[in-house]
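Researcher: Good morning. I'm working through a list of sequences from a screen, and I'd like to move beyond sequence-only analysis. For each chain I'm collecting a predicted structure so we can compare shapes side by side. This is the next one on the list. No need for commentary yet; just the structure.
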Amino acid sequence: MAYRCTNNLTRADATPRGLFLNRRQIMAGAGALGLGGLARPVGAQEALEPNSYEEITTYNNYYEFGTGKADPAKNAEALDTTDWQVTVDGLVDNPGTYPLAELIGGLAVEDRIYRLRCVEAWSMVVPWQGIELKDILDRAGVQSNARYVAFETAVQPENMPGVRRGVLDFPYVEGLRLDEAMHPLTIMATGLYDEPMPKQNGAPIRLVVPWKYGFKSIKSIVRISLVEEEPVTTWNSLAPSEYGFYANVNPTVDHPRWSQATERRIGGGLFSSRQDTLMYNGYDEVASLYEGMDLKAQF
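Model: Good morning. Structure tokens for this chain:
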């Protein structure tokens, strides 16, 4: 396939599929040793062998399926993605609950190679398949008084042990300002590495906003709402001093418990050097969206 890239990324830059799905295992090992002790001068990357399929599918993070790193691998297969529907409501001309095939049918599916930067200070490069969110919103007919887009993930208590245990206040919810949602970099991803989206990674459709920290990219979406007021979002509600609504990748605004100035690239080895974090994760073309904002107060 021909991939649309930015920042001179190529398919060769993509984090191996095994490492992508196994990143939580790698970070768990790093945490056990202490991230501070892993810091080295930014420079040469060290090779990291791809993990086995068993390792790849054993570690992930999807709280609806439990907080243990092996929980999604054990439990996410229970996610029922058959006859998936997405409700589009709020300030739109064409509200309704649509089968996924109808919601995205006829829209262009593109291949995008994007950096992914986690608020936990690790990063990777991922080739996604998806549709520009703007195309879906245009089809819905956004009304003139809409200012934000709110998203809601699936809740299936019978299939999600984390929901039954009340790990978070479910459903998981997220949101974007309308101009962010309409930016051509923002996609609704339906696959990765030329395969359908794995269940533990947000099947069958999830948001990807490459200049923001990963927690903004909500998984397994069942509702898209156009609203006038800033919507409530899960992590911002739980810890507003740690997780801002905007969540733009910004090396000058630290998490209260760790620096965001550098990151560790997954795939570089457990003791790999750290690399500088790029403003907006390297996607400088979005900078105009935030002109005049105090990016330390509105983080």
